[in-house]
Each structure stands twice: as structure tokens, then as C-alpha cells.
Automatic annotation (TrEMBL), chain A:
Location (main, coarse): membrane
Subcellular location: Cell membrane
UniProt name for this protein: Cytochrome bo3 quinol oxidase subunit 2
Family stated for the protein in its record: Belongs to the cytochrome c oxidase subunit 2 family.
One Gene Ontology term, aspect cellular component: plasma membrane
Xref: Pfam families: COX2
Cytochrome oxidase subunit II transmembrane region profile domain segment(s): 21-118
Keywords tagged on the record: Cell membrane, Electron transport, Membrane, Oxidoreductase, Respiratory chain, Signal, Transmembrane, Transmembrane helix, Transport
GO terms, molecular function: copper ion binding; cytochrome-c oxidase activity; oxidoreductase activity
Membrane topology: Multi-pass membrane protein
Keyword Cytoplasm set for record: no
Residues spanning the membrane: 43-69, 90-110
Residue ranges annotated for the Cytochrome oxidase subunit II copper A binding domain, each copy included: 124-236
From TrEMBL, chain B:
Keywords, sorted A to Z: Cell membrane, Copper, Electron transport, Heme, Iron, Membrane, Metal-binding, Respiratory chain, Transmembrane, Transmembrane helix, Transport
Domain Cytochrome oxidase subunit I profile: 56-575
Subcellular location: Cell membrane
Membrane association type: Multi-pass membrane protein
Transmembrane segments: 32-53, 74-95, 115-142, 154-178, 205-231, 243-271, 291-314, 326-348, 360-377, 398-419, 439-456, 468-490, 510-534, 630-647
Phylogenetic classification of the source organism: Bacteria, Pseudomonadati, Pseudomonadota, Alphaproteobacteria, Hyphomicrobiales
Coiled coil regions in record: none
Pfam name, any one: COX1
Record-linked PANTHER family: CYTOCHROME BO(3) UBIQUINOL OXIDASE SUBUNIT 1 (PTHR10422:SF35), CYTOCHROME C OXIDASE SUBUNIT 1 (PTHR10422)
Gene3D superfamilies (alphabetical): Cytochrome c oxidase-like, subunit I domain
A cellular component term, taken from the record's GO annotations: plasma membrane
Protein's name according to its UniProt entry: Cytochrome o ubiquinol oxidase subunit 1
GO biological process, one term: respiratory electron transport chain
Amino acid sequence: MNASRGKSACFALLSAFLLSGCNAVKLGVMNHAGPIAASQWRLYSIVAVVLIFVAGPVLLLTPLIAWHYRLSNKHNAFRPNWGFSWTLEGFIWIPPTAIVIGLAFLVWSYTHALDPYRPLVSAQAPLEVQAVGLDWKWLFIEPDQRFAAVNLLVIPVNRPVHISLTSGTVMQSLLIPQLSGQIYAMAGMTTHLNLAASRPGVYRGENTQFNGAGFQNEKFNVVALPPADYDRWVEQARASGHPLDAAAYPALFRQSSPPQPIVFSSIPQDLFQRILVQSTEPRS
Amino acid sequence: MTEGVWPAVLGRFVWHSLPFVRAWENPTASEIIGAGAASIVIFGAVLVVALITRLGKWRSLWSEWLTSLDHKKIGIMYIVLAFVMLTRALIEAVLMRMQQAAAVGSPGFLAPNHFAQLFSTHGSIMIFFMAMPFLVGLINYVMPLQIGSRDVAFPLLNSISLWLTGGAAGLMMVSLVIGEFSTGGWSGYPPYTELAFSPGVGPDYWIWAVTLGSVGSTLTGINFAVTIYKMRCDGMHLMRMPLFVWTALCTSILMIFAMPPLTVATALLALDRYLGFHFFTNDLGGNMMNYANLFWLFGHPEVYILILPAFGVYSEVVATFSSKELYGYTSLVLATAAIALLSFTVWVHHFFTMGQNANINAAFGIATMAIGVPTGVKIYDWIWTMFRGEVRFSVPMLYSLAFMMTFVLGGLTGIILAIPPLDYLVHNTLFLVAHFHNMLIPGLLYAMLAGYHYWFPKAFGFRLDEKWGRISFGCWVAGFYLAFMPLYVLGAAGMARRTQEVFEPAFRPWLYVAGAGALVLFCALAFLFVQLWVSIRDRDANRVFAGDPWDGRGLEWSISAPPPEYNYAALPRVHGRDPFYEAKRKGNPYPPPASYDDIELPKNSKTGPVIGVVGAATAFGLVWHMWWLAVIGVLAIGATVIARSFARDVRRIIPAAEIERTERRWLRAEAEITPIPRAVETTPANRGLAEVSG
């Protein structure tokens, strides 16, 4: 009785363990939520099929041949001085070369199609976002809406988003696995990332480039809202948050990760440009 | 008064620099582990010194090993260094895996800075002070024997390279006891490692350890390349060289061209940190991407520096243990050269995410995939070498088979990473970590262990224990799969590398499996040491003095085990690709020389140890801003080099009579040994003489 209860408890625990393990892949590109990530997943699937033909022969032939030609198997041909065959050379060199040439076309076209700098094709004008990597948080500025938030990026569904990135500190890299790939953010330089969300939801984002003791805390959520909800959210943010004024500004550059996202109801003029210039000035 | 004197003497050293003081003031698990590691280093050093003193071995250690210019002894010392450093870096890996497994939604037991030091030292050590010394040691030991030479071209330079590497490794160990190490990873990317963001001693330890090591490796590359070009015996044409020598040659050329960019990168970073330059700073026109380019201009060829000798080992092992000629020798040579050349054309794939245009990314992505072709060719060449052979599943062969099956998986994920749009997703994640461990553990480490098992009987005259070898092998393979396959999943789910704390409960099961894998890998290393101990204990039962325990094919098996210090009583003359194999079939494998002549060998020299120790002391002075020490060190190195240039009496003669005695003793012993068939080669019946068949 006790033993069987123990066993079923063990089983329950194990299955919970396995289930939570499967949840891990849902956080990645397999569970894509935007056109860029969807294309990346499609490309991955194509490549995965090709790769079966690359690895398959090696994975089959290595154990088969090694076992078949083992010393104790005396029924085999033994040709110790055989070491070359033009036919085999053809089999060894030509198919891999052909596969790489084939993949080269795929790489060329997809690298251009999924260039993070390429604007998404859409009837709507892209939402402009400026992202600043700081120690150990992200500042997201929406200049047209004239507000900003720390560790929170709210975007409307189905509208392209164009993110300009820089860093107010060391190099960082912005990754939102369910929406798109990553791009570096570097002080004094601007990089670009185009993406969109195709369904409402909350998506995990992070910095993947180690930047010090608070690196692991540098995570944020991307919230994709239906357009009407997004507009409402912007109104609310601009009405209820604190302004990013001279008192709040220096705190951004202190090494810290806020436990909760912070929303700023208003921002100074040309905030992004100001940080861009500031980070290349001599440090006193 | 004291304020003026002590800072000048001690530089920036304060009591707080000692991990013991830090642990006393702040007794957290993290600090106590740090102090524990420091005490292990001190305790280990004291133990070694006490043991040598008690055994009265200082004099023989100094005159027979530390000052020796014999390529065989230098090779062995490199490999001992590699094992010591492997032990430390593997323990660090286990600690990191335990931390991540424990830190799902909790801070775990290692503080973020401590964790960052661990991944920085783990990477730096595994590349510069484990992999490099291991392969350089193996080449040092084997290559001159394989080309029928008595030494490398520049024996003194060889000793200096060893000691520079050893001094740098010593600096890594000192950083555990005094101060702290860099938190900037093995690649040390600025601006994080610049003064503005990392003012402490950590990045300086990294800079000087890597600089000493990279200078040593450049010199080694020159030494090996000249040796292979100039010191081959009669008849050893380039296209008759064993494949291991070919890979050694390509690796040496890569070292000559790829190490200097690293030395330049660390030197420029040092100028930034020490003299206020602005090469890679955020401000005043610095640009960190210049560092990234320089670093990977070294870093990508570096991975082929590591993997090519591994391919060489596999070529030797697969042919020997299949009792068969290597399939497609010419293809293998061409593939090796192609890989060496292509390795300089792909460095940008380490930063596809920099924001360059799609043409550049696509071009570098395609170049990267192109390397897959010659690599694939090599794998097939080894498969067809086994074809129509007689395969024996000895330990080196098991490593080779595990390598072929596992390396191909790393190749697949390599192709995924080579495609820029897919790299954007998994760059900087655990997927990348899994990929390069998938290349380096089955690729490099298995090869080094295969080579260690394969050539150990040659170097020490007895075989390694087979049973413990198999157990250890099983752990290296099972541990690898357990530790790194979960990381692919975690990386695909977006888990960033170098993460001290994890906030996703879904990652927990995978981190547990990876943690278990790390423990299995640790057991694998422990069993390797058990094997060494058991083998030394049972050495008399497993002696192979005759020198040919595996029915070998190359020249290195045609002499006694261990070989005499002069290698060959008379320099050999070869007529084909597998000279010793052919000689055995012709019935005259051990021809006594027509006459015995005096042999001239280089005398021992203190120059290497002095330069290594003083180099490390200079680096230590620079790290701690003890300028007096740095100045004295630089002057001392200059003085040593000048003093050495006045030494005239640098050669010693081994008289013909002594050589004759040694050779006759070996040939007499050989005549009494029964040749054995391959089926019993792993039993004590194997005395190092092969029964000739086929």
C-alpha cells in the first residue's frame, strides 16, 4: 500500500518533471509568434531534412563496417594493401560538395530575406522603437508615442516594428526567441532589428552577451496587444507613469536590475541620440 | 613613510586580495569555495615539494627533466601540464553545472562574480593550457620519431616554449590564490574588459597569461614547421610522411599565422588598460569590433590548430587497429591542407550578429559550410580504411569510433550555426556551447586520449591497463552525451550562456541531466588516473621493450620502448609510406647499423626554466603594478638571452661504444621475445613484438 503510493508519487513526480522539460522548447523559435521567427523555423526544418542525408551515412556505415570487419570475423575479405579507388573518391567528394552548393543557394537567399536590417513588407508604417542596453536592464523608447519603459516592450500585433539599438554601457545582444533573432547593441553605434508579432501574447526577451554580475537578471517581456488594446495601453502609460526627468535619468545608468518594469510617462527630446553621444564621450 | 613604500613594493596588493581574508570577512558558500580552491593549490604545491624533497629527487628532476632539451621529455612534460590543467578546468565545469542545476529560481551557491571567473578560467585553461599543451606535447614526442629525426630543429627554443606555456599556466594557478581572475570569458571582449568596466586585476591576469602562452605557441609553430621541412630522414618525401606529420605541419603553419593576431589583440588591450590608449574603449574613437575581428582572426584558425592534430591521431589509430593501409592518403592530405587554408576565411561567423550587411554574412556562412566538405571526406576515408581490414576494438580505436559518430552531430549543428538567419537565434546561447563542446570533446579530447593510450607504451615501455581504459572511455562518452545534448535543447529555447541564475522552471530537468553528465565526466577523468596508477603498479607484467605493441606501421615503432635518447642509432632510410610495416613483411624490421658512430646531442640548458619563471614573475609584476618586479623581470630575460648567446659548449657526444651497448642489449632482448598475434595484443603476452601476417 505504502510502496504503491510511493511508486505512484514517484511516477507523478517524474511525469511532472518530463512535462516541465517539454515546456522548455515552447519558449523558443519552435513556438514562433511572428513572421521572422516563422521563416527561421521553416528554414531550420528544411536544413534539418538535408542534414539527415549528411549524417545518416556516417552514423550507419561507421558501426556497420567496424563490426563487420572485426578481427574475430574470419569470413571477410582482408585486403591490407588496398587504399584507393576512384569510384569511392567520387562518392566521397562529389555528394558533400553538391550538398554544400545546394545549401549555399539556400543560405544566400535566406540571409538576404531574413536580414535583420530589411524592413518588413506591410501596408502599415512600422512602429519605431529605440532600445538601449544598460547595466543590467533594457530601456525601450517609443519616440513617436513619447514614452519609454524599462524591461518592458509593448507592441501592437501585426504591425511591423523597427528597433534601433545602442548600448549605454558595454556590448549587449538583444534576443526575443519567439519573434526574431538577435543583434548586438554597441555604445556609440546604432544597429537595427525588424520584427513583428502575429498573435497577442507575452514573449520572453533577454540580453545574451555577458556584461557583468547582473547579467542573468537582464530579462524582459515583450507584450503583443491587439491594436485597440495597444492604443489604450499607450494612453494609460502616458497618463499614469513618472516622467523620465533629470532626477530619474542618472538612475538608469546605475548598475541594477529593477524587480518590476518601470514605465516613464514622458521622455526628454532626442533621448536616444543623447545616449548615443554620451557613451562616446571621455569618462571622467 | 609607510604610505610611500608599501604601495611601491606591493603595487595594488592588499590583504583583501587573498581569498582566505575574503572568506573570513564574508563566509558565504561562494567565498569558502574560493578559499578552498586556493588552499588546494597551496596544499598541492607544498605536497609536491615535500614529496620531491623526501624522495631526494630535486637533482635528478632538474638535470633529467626540467632543463632537458630532449624532444621526448619536453613532450611528456607538456602532457603532464595538460593533465594538471584538465583536472582543474573540469572541476570548474562540474561546479558551474552544479550551480546552474541548483540555481533555478534561487541564487544557488556561487556568487555571480565567482561564477563568471569560473567560466572565464574554464575556457582559457581548456584552450590555452589543456588542449594546446596536450597536442603540442604529442607532436613533440611523436613527430621527430615519425620523420626519422633525433630531435626538433631548435631544441632550446622548444624548451623555452614549454616554459613560457608552463609559466603562463602557473600564473593561472596563482590567480586562484592571489587576487581574482577575469570575468570577461575566454575571449575577453572589450569594452567589458577595459579599465572603465573591469578595473581589477582579473583581466590583467588573463592578458598576460594568454600573451605568454601565445608567444610560446608561435615559437612552437616555427620550430615544428622547420623540423618537418628540414629534418626528415632519407627517402621521407612529403607525400610519404605519416598523416600525423602532415597534420602537425598544417597546425604549425596555422600557429605561425594565427597566434600573432592574438598577441597583437592582447597587447593593444594592455595598452588601453595600462597606458590609457583607446583602441577598444567606448570613448575617444575606440571600437571593440576591431578587437572581435583580431581575436577571431586568431580564434577560428585556433580551432583547426586544435582539431588537425586530432585528425592526425585518428588517421594513425584507425589504420593501425584495422591492420590496413590508410584509405585515400592523397585525399586526406588535400583535405588537411584545404581545411588549413579555409580556416582563415571564416572568422566573421563568430559575429554574424554585429549588424554587417547580408552579402558579408552570406559569404562567410557559405565559406564556413565549405569546410564541412574536406572534413566529411576525412570521416569517409577512415570508414573506408576499416573496410576490408581486421578491426580491433582497443581503447584508442574505441575513442576513434566514438569520435566519428559524435563529431558528425557537432558538424550538423555547426552547419546550423553557419547559416546566419539560424545563428541569429542560437548565437550566445547554450546551443553554441553545446556545439563547440561537441567538436572539442569528441574531436580534440578523445583524440588526445586515443593518442595517449596509443603512444604511452612507446614512451614508457609498458601498456596502459585495458580494463580501466574501457571504463574511463565509457564515462567520457556517456558523460559527454548527458552533459551536452540537454544544452542543445536549452539553447534552442533561448537560454543564454554564462547564466549564473535561471528563472525558467522548464529548464530544470535539462539542467539536472547536464549536471549528472558533468559528474560522469569527472568520474571519467578520475578513472583515467586510476588507470595510470594501476598500470604503473602492474608495469612489469605489461612491458613492451621490443617496441612494437600494436603491429605499428611508422618508424616510431621500429625502435625500443622507451626509445634511447638519440632515437635512432643510425638515421633510417625509407622507401615508402609505411616503412616499418613494409620492413616487417620483408623479414628485416630491425637491421643493425653497418657501423656505430658517435652521436651529438644538445646539452641541457637552464635558459628555458629561467625565461619561463622570470616571464611569469614579470607578468605577475605587471598584473599587480609592482613596477620594480616587471622592470627587473624584463632586464633578467634580456640578460638570460645574452648570456646564453655566449655559451659555446652546448653539445655533448654519446660515444659509439655506449650506443652499441644499448642497441645490442635491445636486439638481444628482442631475440628472446615471442612474437604475438593481434588477438592477444591486450594481454601480458604482448611483449612488443608483432607476429607478421598478411
